[in-house]
Amino acid sequence: MKALSYLLVSFIIVFSIFYVYLNHWDDILFSLFGIESEFTIYIGDQAMKVTVADTLAERKVGLSNVAGLRDLQGKLLIFDDEDYHGIWMKDMLFPIDVIWIDNDLEIVHIESNVQPSSYPDTIYGPPKPARYILETKAFFASSYKLNVGEKINIPSDLLTPDISNRLLGQ
Questions:
Q1: What angle do CA 131, 124, 166 make, to 5 degrees?
Q2: Within 13 A of 14's CA, how many CA atoms are on the CB side?
Q3: Could you tell me if 90 and 49 lie in one domain?
């Protein structure tokens, strides 16, 4: 009976650790070490590493107070709904390109070389509703010849269920 109790307790501990790993590991790494998980997205054949902002608090911060980005690195802001989401340059330390992406994973608008000095006077937004915003180094869009209408490939684990189901035809 004692062995069965140890086995049960061991199972509960292992299950709990596995659950925390699957559901909260990114939060733990960020809280303890300031490490954000990176995901790979594709724009055409070009792979790009992005960190994700998918809560209101994370989206408000975006790339604020970040010293800079490496080439082919960015921040992907994920919103709950497709809308005219705007951004400002509060506490930004370098210029960026801002790329709005809709529910069909197509680029709907690009703002190039957005300057930190534009805050607080300017809020940038798309002419059409968007679900995602990709923030990159300035001149990324022109360097890689990005255009409105171009498709972005976002990993399925970053897609919201409604988009994932629609893309899979469910």
A1: 10
A2: 6
A3: yes
Check residues 44 and 54 and name the one with the higher pLDDT: 54
Q: Are 56 and 125 within one domain?
A: yes
- Prior bond of 120 cis (ω within 30°): yes
Give the predicted TM-score (pTM) of the model: 0.78
Q: How do residues 61-101 score in pLDDT, each as one tens digit?
A: 999 999 999 999 999 999 999 999 999 999 999 999 999 99
| Residue of 162, 163, 158 lying closest to 50 (CA atoms) | 158
Report the helix count and the strand count for the chain, using DSSP H and E.
4, 7
As for how many domains the chain has, the answer is 2
Residue numbers of the domain that contains 53: 39-167
